[in-house]
C-alpha cells in the first residue's frame, strides 16, 4: 500500500520522512520536491506520477503531506487517510503548522508507527491511540477541552472502543449516598442534605445505548405519577428487573452532574438519561438533594450534671427504617469534657469504650436492625478545675452504613439497546446496590 | 538547547549518567532523529554505540526512539549489531506487549545477516502470542520477511497460521492477515475466497475499522457469486455500506455492486439512487482531493452511464458549483460535470455560474468555462440569445485573459454558428486595438475576416497593423495575410490597396514560411480568381 510518507514545509524542506517499503528510495523525497513544490506552474492534480511512482499529496496551510507508492492504490482511500492523519495530529497538538510539527517530532513518529503499519492503515481512533502512545502533544492543554466538546457535539465516541465483547453481559449499579445532618437538641433538623454518586460498572458488548430511569420528581410529575409507599428492596446486590410502578415516592434533585458520555440534549428535552457507557467502572452522575430525606438514625441525648464532679449522660439511638434492613458499622461518638478523670459506661448492645486521647466515648454497634432502640448510660467523673468556663458541648456524631438511599433515590429502570449485536435488554444481567453512608451526622446536645 | 552540534549530542549520549536522566535522553534522541530526516545525508554511524546501549532502557519512549534510529542507520556494518540482536531477542520475551511488538518490528526491519537468522523463529513464535497487539505486529512482519526472501510464501507453517488468524477475535488482526496473504500469495492470485470465507467476512464487516472495512470490501470485489439468489443476498446484507460515513467504503461497495449486477442491469438505477446521498455528502465535505477523486471516477467509469449520473444530480446540481478557494484542477473537473447536468429547468442558473467562472482569475479555469459555453451553443441552438449576451459580456471584460480566451473559443466555432453570433462583431475592432497577446490578436483578425464588418472600421484596423508590421509576431503576420485576402475577396474594390501592401510586406519578410505563403496565395489569386474566392471566403 503506502510506501512512504513525507511531510514538507512550504520551502520544500523535509520535516518528517518515514519509508515503509524498500521500493521507495531517497530520491523519491527529492523528486516530489522538485516536481511539485518547486514547480513553476500551478498544481495540476493532487496525484502526480513520476517514474512509475505515484505521489498523493494534500496541502494544509503551508505544509505539504505526501504519500508515495509504487503499487496500484485507490486514490480516494489514500486521501481519506491523509485527511484523518491531519485530524489525529490536530487532536494532539492543535493546528498543523511547521512549528507544531517541529515541537512534536517524536510524537508524530509514534503516531505514524501506530496508524500505518508497513504501509497499511491500522487504527486511527484518537481515543484508542492514546493508550499506545506515551507522549502528550505539546500544546494539547487547550485542545483537550475543545475535543471533548466537539465529541459531545458531533456524537463521536472517544470513551469506548469498538469491538468489545463479553460472554456474559452484565452491569452493576452502585448508588452511593452520603447523608449529612445537623440536628438541634430538641430534635429539630437544622440542616440536612444528601450527596449522591451513581457508579456504574458495565461489562457489555459492542456499543450499547443505555437508558437510565430514576424517580425524579420532575419526570414523575410530567408522567402524572402518584407518590405512594416506599418500597425498598433487600440489602446487598439485588437483581433488578425492569419493574415500574406508579406508587413510588419521587425525589427532588437539586442539581446533578453527568459523565461526559450522557447525551445532555436528551436530558434537557425529555429529562431522560441516555448514554453509551465506557467499558468498566465509571461515575455516571452526581446529585444533591435537600428535601424529604429519610434520616436513618435519630439520637436523643440526655445530659445531667450532678454537682461539679459528675456528669450523667444517657443516649438513645433509634433506627428509622424498615425492620428487615440492617445497618452496619454503627458508631456513636459522645464527646466528654476535657477534665474527665474516668467514665463508667453501661450499654446493652454493642461495645462502648472511653477513649481519653479523643475525649470521647466511642460506642460501636456491629449490626442494627430497623425500628429498634438502643440505649447507653454513662457516668463521667470530672476532676476539680478552677476553670469557671462552661464546657461547650460538642455534638454527638454518628457513623453508619445503610443498605438503602436515604434520599429516597430509586433506580426505576436501566434499559440496554444494542441493535447490531444479538443480545437484547433481557439478556443483560443487571445488579443494583444502594449504599447510604453517613457524612457529617451530628446531633447537638 | 537549539542547534546542538553532533559532537555535543554524541558526548551527552555516551555519558554514563544519561540513562538515568530520562527527559534529557529523550531530547537528545529526538535531535538525532531530526538529523536523520534532514536533506543532507549525514553519517550517523558514530551514534550507533550509545544508541544500541539505550535500546535496553526501560523507558518505552527511549526504547522506541533508539530502535527507530537503529533502523535508519542500518546500512553500516558493525559488531554492535550482535549486542543489538541480543537486546531485541530478550525484549521479545518481555511481559509488556508494546515492547514485544516493537522489538519484533525492529528485528524484521534490519537487513543485516545477524538479524535475519533470528527473525523467522521470532515471527512464528509471536504469531501465536496472547496479546492482539503483538499478533498484529507479527502478521505485518511476515510481509517484511517476504520482501526479503520470497520463499516465505511457500512456507506452509506461516501461511496456514495466517489463514487460521483470519478467524481471530481481534478485527485488526483479521484485516492485517488478509492484506498480508494478498501480498504474499500474489503469484497465486491472492487470498482464496470461498463462499464460507465471504460469508464470514461479511458477518464481521461491522466490527472492522474504517480502513479494514474499505480493504475487505475491495477484496470482496474479486468474488464471483454463483447464483442470482446469492447475489441478491449479498446485496441485501451489504446495502447499509452503500451509504456509509466513510466515502471510500461506499465507493468500494458501489464498485462491488456494479460488478455483481453486471448481468442484471435493472438494478443499476436503484443502486445509484442508494448512493446518491453519499455522493452529495462527498461534495460537501471539505476534502478537495477526495472530491477530485470521485469526479474522476464518475467521468472515467461511467461514460456510458450518463443518464444515470444525470438523474443522480439533477435536483442537486447546486452541490457541484465551485467555491472560490478550491484549487484549479477541481474547478475544471466540476465544470465538466456541470455541463452534463444541464436541463431545461436549470439552464439559466448553470449558465450564470459558467459566466461567473469564465471571468475567474485562473486562466485555465476561465478557458475551460468558456469552452463549456461553446458546448452549450452547439447543443442548445434554441437559447442562443442568452449565450450571445454571455459572450458580449465576456468580451467586454476588464481582464485581458478572459477576453483573449473568449476570442480563442469563438474562433473554434464553425462559420455557420458564427453567423448567429454576428452581433459580436461590433466589438471586434475595438478589441483588436486593445489586445496585446498574440493568440488574441490572431483570433481577432480571423474573426474580422469572417464577419461582414463596417468597412471603414476594418480598414482602420488593418492599416494600423500594417503600420506596426515589423513588430508583429509571425503568427499574427500570417493571420493578417489571411484576413486581408478574405476581406479582399469580399470587398475587392476597398481592400485592394491594403492587400497589395500586405503582400508586399510579407514577401520581404525574414520568415521564409511567410514569404512562401504570400507567394503561394498571390499566385492562386493571380491564376484563378474564382477558385480563390471560394478558398478565402
UniProtKB/TrEMBL annotation, chain B:
<dbReference type="GO" id="GO:0030276">
    <property type="term" value="F:clathrin binding"/>
</dbReference>
<comment type="similarity">
    <text>Belongs to the adaptor complexes large subunit family.</text>
</comment>
<dbReference type="InterPro" id="IPR026739">
    <property type="entry name" value="AP_beta"/>
</dbReference>
<feature type="domain" description="Clathrin/coatomer adaptor adaptin-like N-terminal">
    <location>
        <begin position="8"/>
        <end position="526"/>
    </location>
</feature>
<dbReference type="GO" id="GO:0012505">
    <property type="term" value="C:endomembrane system"/>
</dbReference>
<protein>
    <recommendedName>
        <fullName>AP complex subunit beta</fullName>
    </recommendedName>
</protein>
<dbReference type="GO" id="GO:0016192">
    <property type="term" value="P:vesicle-mediated transport"/>
</dbReference>
<dbReference type="GO" id="GO:0030117">
    <property type="term" value="C:membrane coat"/>
</dbReference>
<dbReference type="InterPro" id="IPR016024">
    <property type="entry name" value="ARM-type_fold"/>
</dbReference>
<dbReference type="InterPro" id="IPR011989">
    <property type="entry name" value="ARM-like"/>
</dbReference>
<dbReference type="Pfam" id="PF01602">
    <property type="entry name" value="Adaptin_N"/>
</dbReference>
<keyword id="KW-0472">Membrane</keyword>
<keyword id="KW-0813">Transport</keyword>
<dbReference type="InterPro" id="IPR016342">
    <property type="entry name" value="AP_complex_bsu_1_2_4"/>
</dbReference>
<dbReference type="GO" id="GO:0006886">
    <property type="term" value="P:intracellular protein transport"/>
</dbReference>
<keyword id="KW-0653">Protein transport</keyword>
<dbReference type="InterPro" id="IPR002553">
    <property type="entry name" value="Clathrin/coatomer_adapt-like_N"/>
</dbReference>
Amino acid at each position: 500500500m503506502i510506501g512512504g510518507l513525507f511531510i514538507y514545509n512550504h520551502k520544500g524542506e523535509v520535516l518528517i520522512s518515514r519509508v515503509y517499503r524498500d521500493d521507495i528510495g531517497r530520491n523519491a523525497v527529492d523528486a516530489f520536491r522538485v516536481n511539485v513544490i518547486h514547480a513553476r506552474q500551478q498544481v495540476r492534480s493532487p496525484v502526480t506520477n513520476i517514474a512509475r511512482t505515484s505521489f498523493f499529496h494534500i496541502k494544509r496551510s503551508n505544509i505539504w503531506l505526501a504519500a508515495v507508492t509504487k503499487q496500484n492504490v485507490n486514490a480516494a482511500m489514500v486521501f481519506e487517510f491523509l485527511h484523518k492523519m491531519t485530524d489525529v495530529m490536530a487532536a494532539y497538538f492543535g493546528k498543523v503548522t511547521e512549528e507544531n510539527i517541529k515541537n512534536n517530532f517524536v510524537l508524530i513518529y509514534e503516531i505514524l508507527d501506530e496508524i500505518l503499519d508497513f504501509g497499511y492503515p491500522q487504527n486511527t481512533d484518537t481515543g484508542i491511540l492514546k493508550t499506545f502512545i506515551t507522549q502528550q502533544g505539546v500544546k494539547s492543554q487547550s485542545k483537550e477541552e475543545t475535543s471533548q466538546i466537539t465529541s459531545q457535539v458531533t456524537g463521536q465516541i472517544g470513551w469506548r472502543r469498538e469491538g468489545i465483547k463479553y460472554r456474559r453481559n452484565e452491569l452493576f449499579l452502585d448508588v452511593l449516598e452520603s447523608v449529612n445532618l445537623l440536628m438541634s437538641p430538641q430534635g429539630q433538623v437544622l440542616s440536612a442534605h444528601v450527596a449522591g454518586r451513581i457508579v456504574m460498572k458495565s461489562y457489555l458488548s459492542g456499543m450499547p445505548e443505555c437508558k437510565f430511569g430514576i424517580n425524579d420528581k420532575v419526570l414523575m410529575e410530567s408522567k402524572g405519577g402518584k407518590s405512594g409507599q416506599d418500597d425498598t428492596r433487600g440489602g446487598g446486590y439485588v437483581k433488578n428487573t425492569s419493574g415500574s410502578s406508579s406508587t413510588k415516592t419521587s425525589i427532588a434533585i437539586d442539581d446533578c452532574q453527568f459523565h461526559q458520555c450522557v447525551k445532555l440534549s436528551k436530558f434537557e428535552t425529555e429529562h431522560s438519561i441516555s448514554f453509551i457507557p465506557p467499558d468498566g467502572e465509571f461515575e455516571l452522575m452526581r446529585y444533591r438533594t435537600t428535601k424529604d430525606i429519610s434520616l436513618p438514625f435519630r439520637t436523643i441525648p440526655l445530659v445531667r450534671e450532678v454537682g461539679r464532679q459528675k456528669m450523667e449522660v444517657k443516649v438513645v439511638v433509634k433506627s428509622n427504617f424498615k425492620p428487615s434492613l440492617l445497618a452496619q458499622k454503627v458508631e456513636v461518638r459522645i464527646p466528654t469534657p476535657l477534665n474527665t478523670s474516668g467514665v463508667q459506661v453501661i450499654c446493652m448492645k454493642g461495645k462502648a469504650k472511653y477513649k481519653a486521647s479523643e475525649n470521647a466515648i466511642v460506642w460501636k454497634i456491629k449490626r442494627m436492625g430497623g425500628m429498634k432502640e438502643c440505649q447507653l448510660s454513662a457516668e463521667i467523673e470530672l476532676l476539680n478545675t478552677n476553670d469557671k468556663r462552661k464546657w461547650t458541648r460538642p455534638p454527638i456524631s454518628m457513623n453508619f452504613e445503610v443498605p438503602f438511599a436515604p434520599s429516597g433515590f430509586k433506580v426505576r429502570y436501566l434499559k440496554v439497546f444494542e441493535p447490531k449485536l444479538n443480545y437484547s435488554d433481557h439478556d443483560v444481567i443487571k445488579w443494583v446496590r444502594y449504599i447510604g453512608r453517613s457524612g457529617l451526622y451530628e446531633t447537638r446536645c | 538547547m537549539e542547534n546542538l552540534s553532533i559532537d555535543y549530542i554524541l558526548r551527552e549520549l555516551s555519558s554514563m549518567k544519561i540513562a538515568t536522566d530520562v527527559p534529557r535522553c529523550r531530547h537528545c534522541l529526538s535531535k538525532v532523529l531530526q538529523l536523520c530526516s534532514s536533506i543532507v545525508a549525514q553519517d550517523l554511524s558514530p551514534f550507533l554505540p550509545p544508541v544500541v546501549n539505550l535500546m535496553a532502557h526501560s523507558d518505552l519512549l527511549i526504547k522506541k526512539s533508539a530502535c527507530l534510529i537503529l533502523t535508519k542507520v542500518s546500512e553500516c556494518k558493525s559488531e554492535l549489531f550482535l549486542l543489538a540482536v541480543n537486546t531485541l531477542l530478550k525484549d521479545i520475551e518481555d511481559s509488556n506487549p508494546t515492547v514485544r511488538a516493537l522489538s519484533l518490528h525492529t528485528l524484521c526491519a534490519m537487513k543485516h545477516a545477524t538479524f535475519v537468522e533470528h527473525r523467522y523463529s521470532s515471527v512464528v513464535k509471536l504469531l501465536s502470542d496472547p496479546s492482539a497487539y503483538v499478533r498484529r505486529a507479527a502478521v505485518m512482519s511476515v510481509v517484511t520477511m517476504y520482501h526479503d526472501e520470497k520463499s516465505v510464501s511457500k512456507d506452509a507453517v506461516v501461511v496456514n497460521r495466517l489463514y487460521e488468524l483470519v478467524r481471530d477475535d481481534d478485527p485488526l488482526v483479521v484485516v492485517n492477515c488478509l492484506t498480508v496473504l494478498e501480498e504474499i500469495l500474489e503469484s497465486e492470485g491472492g487470498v482464496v475466497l470461498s463462499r464460507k470465507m465471504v460469508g464470514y467476512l461479511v458477518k464481521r464487516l461491522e466490527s472492522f475499522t474504517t480502513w479494514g472495512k474499505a480493504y475487505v470490501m475491495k477484496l470482496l470485489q474479486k468474488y464471483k457469486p454463483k447464483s442470482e439468489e446469492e447475489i441478491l443476498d449479498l446485496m441485501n446484507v451489504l446495502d447499509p455500506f452503500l451509504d456509509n460515513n466513510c466515502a471510500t467504503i461506499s465507493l468500494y461497495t458501489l464498485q462491488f455492486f456494479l460488478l455483481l449486477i453486471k448481468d442484471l442491469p435493472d438494478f443499476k438505477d436503484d443502486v445509484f439512487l442508494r448512493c446518491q446521498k453519499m455522493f452529495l455528502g462527498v461534495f460537501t465535505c471539505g476534502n478537495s482531493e477526495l472530491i477530485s477523486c470521485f469526479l474522476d471516477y464518475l467521468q472515467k467509469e461511467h461514460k456510458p452511464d450518463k443518464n444515470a449520473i444525470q438523474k443522480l444530480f439533477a435536483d442537486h446540481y447546486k452541490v457541484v458549483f465551485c467555491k472560490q478557494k478550491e484549487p484549479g484542477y477541481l474547478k475544471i473537473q466540476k465544470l465538466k460535470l456541470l455541463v452534463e447536468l444541464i436541463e431545461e429547468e436549470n439552464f439559466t442558473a448553470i449558465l450564470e455560474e459558467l459566466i461567473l467562472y469564465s471571468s475567474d482569475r485562473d486562466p485555465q479555469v476561465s478557458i475551460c468555462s468558456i469552452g463549456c459555453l461553446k458546448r452549450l451553443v452547439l447543443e442548445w441552438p434554441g437559447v442562443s440569445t442568452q449565450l450571445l449576451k454571455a459572450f458580449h459580456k465576456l468580451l467586454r471584460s476588464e481582464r485581458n485573459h478572459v477576453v483573449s480566451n473568449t476570442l480563442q473559443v469563438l474562433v473554434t466555432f464553425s462559420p455557420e454558428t458564427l453567423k448567429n453570433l454576428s452581433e459580436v462583431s461590433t466589438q471586434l475592432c475595438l478589441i483588436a486595438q486593445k489586445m496585446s497577446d498574440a493568440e488574441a490578436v490572431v483570433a481577432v483578425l480571423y474573426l474580422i475576416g469572417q464577419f461582414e464588418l463596417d468597412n471603414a472600421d476594418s480598414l482602420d484596423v488593418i492599416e494600423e497593423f500594417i503600420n506596426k508590421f515589423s513588430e508583429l509576431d509571425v503568427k499574427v503576420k500570417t493571420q493578417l495575410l489571411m484576413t486581408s485576402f478574405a476581406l479582399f475577396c469580399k470587398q475587392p474594390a476597398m481592400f485592394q490597396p491594403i492587400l497589395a501592401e500586405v503582400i508586399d510586406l510579407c514577401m520581404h519578410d525574414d520568415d521564409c514560411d511567410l514569404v512562401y505563403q504570400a507567394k503561394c496565395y498571390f499566385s492562386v489569386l493571380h491564376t484563378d480568381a474564382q477558385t480563390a474566392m471560394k478558398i478565402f471566403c
